[in-house]
Amino acid sequence: AEIYARKATELNPNFANAHLNLGNLLTKLGKLEQAEVSTRKATELNPNFANAHLNLGNLLTKLGKLEQAELSTCKAIKIKPDYAEAHFNLGTILKDFGKLKEAESSTRKAIKIKPDYAEAHCNLGTILKDLGKLKEAELSTRKAIEIKPDLAKAYYSLSSFKYFDKNKIWR
Is the model's pTM score more than 0.85? Predict the structure, then answer.
């Protein structure tokens, strides 16, 4: 697949979709630096390509370049304000920066756009837990399980919640 994706970019160097596809393949192959070059090329060729900006943000996150990832993800949102996945990813990045209130806001936007987004409900639960909003955190995580009963991360999150109410502990 990589050979064909490279051939597509060679035959038509201005084909943004081909560069994005190559970037996606390289990412799956663990060739993250090469994937970054190809994905950046897609955003340069088509600056309004929201999916390319989102994918670049994901890739930069994997490379530990969180500030650049945040900028790229924000660009995807600017291009496509109703892009639930971009709001979700921005929430994850902001959480990694420790900006929990902003992370909560971004994740809630993702859920508003796509109410059945189980992963967003699960991440919101984690963010709310970190903010000390334990009951809301549990409700959000349970909503994730209701939507997607096989979401292992949600069960893991529930197992790690500890609720303290004076002398009682719930697990």
Answer: yes
